[in-house]
Each structure stands twice: as C-alpha cells, then as structure tokens.
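Why does residue order matter? Because the sequence determines the fold. Keep that principle in mind as you read this record.
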Amino acid sequence: MIVVYAHRGMHAIERENTIGAFAAAVALGVDGVELDVRRTLDGTLVVHHDPSIGDQIIAQSGRRTLPSYVPTLEEALNSLKGVRVNVEIKNSRAPNEPSYDETGDLARQVVTTLREMDWHESASISCFDLATCAVVRSFDRDITVDWLLWDVELGDAMIRAHVLELDAINPHFSAVTAGVVTQARELQLDVNVWTVNGLDDLERMASLGVASIITDEPALARQVVR
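Structure:
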C-alpha cells in the first residue's frame, strides 16, 4: 500500500506547518504528514518551512519572539498521534539559508526528541543535505532516513544512499521512472516522491509502485492509491 503524506499538513484550508493544518490532515485520515524543522537561537526546535518570518530570521531569534502560530516540534508531534510523520530537517548550504549546522548537533537533537517522545518507529527523517542524513544514520542505526533529492543524477544518488545505509530517496516526482524504481529496489531503497498534485501524475506514481507520495492534495491522492 502506497503511503500518502499531507505536505505541511492540510495547508489548502489552514496555514501550513501549523497545529490547525496537522489536525485537519489527521481528521481527513491521511497516512502521514510531512513537516519542516528549524532551530531557534535559544535551541528550540520549531516547525516552519522558510528560514525567515517576514524580516525575522528564525535561526537568529528566540522562540518567544516568533508568532504564536509557529509550533515547536513537540507540539506538532502531539497533534499528530496516530499517523506517520516525515520530519524534514532544514539544514542547507544554499545561498538563501542564513545558517548551516556542520557539527551535526541539529540532526542529533531532532533524533533525540523523536526518541524521547516515542516517535522512533512512526517517524522518518529527511534532508536535502547528505551530510545531515549521514549524521542521523551514524547517530541512530534504526530510525528511517530519507535523502531528499533535487537536480541530481538519481543513479549515482541511489548508490551513495545505499553505501551510507539510508532507507530511501525522496526525489521530485518528475524525475522518477520505472527504471529508477527498479534500481532503487535492487539497492534496497524506498522511493518517496514529492510534491505530486495532479491526477495524471498521481496515477503515474501509483502505477510505478513508489513507497509513498507527498502531496498538497491528500484527499485526491488517497482516492488514487486506494
């Protein structure tokens, strides 16, 4: 059965990455929710996609100075009991990112939080930064680790993921073919695709037998995969 993840919750009807969006996704009956995690200046893990909120840079701000709609990771997880969660760690050397943790401390803090809250078996961790994925895997041999991919050659990426003993690759759906899925299976990797919204694209991904679909249209996706 293909797992359907609501991308940042049900953000078509609620503000994305908020408790309202997560509660709406759970009420819909999704299999899982994808969310984004960052760290504040005072070391709190919060859920937000962009590095800034207006002119306020999250990594340079205290938790109490952020808008009230921004949940902590713990608050988000408490609202998502009963579904799976894909936790994307926002840690990148991209020019639009004001900070990058090269120590691995952010990744370890996320894993520790999931352990302490008993989410170890119901959550996966993903990141575009391969070094961050490698830190998660070295810190925890059991938790599911997915490498998010964009604008890379998938064949080479799958080999690197296999060597690092990651569990999955998460490419943009447009790059996924039957050959990619076949090679991934040979390398004992799942293929989780993002962000699949159109009916034709959802049907194509379902026909390829991907492991999971991350979507802005979870109700439609559920109809297609079932």
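The radius of gyration is 17 Å.
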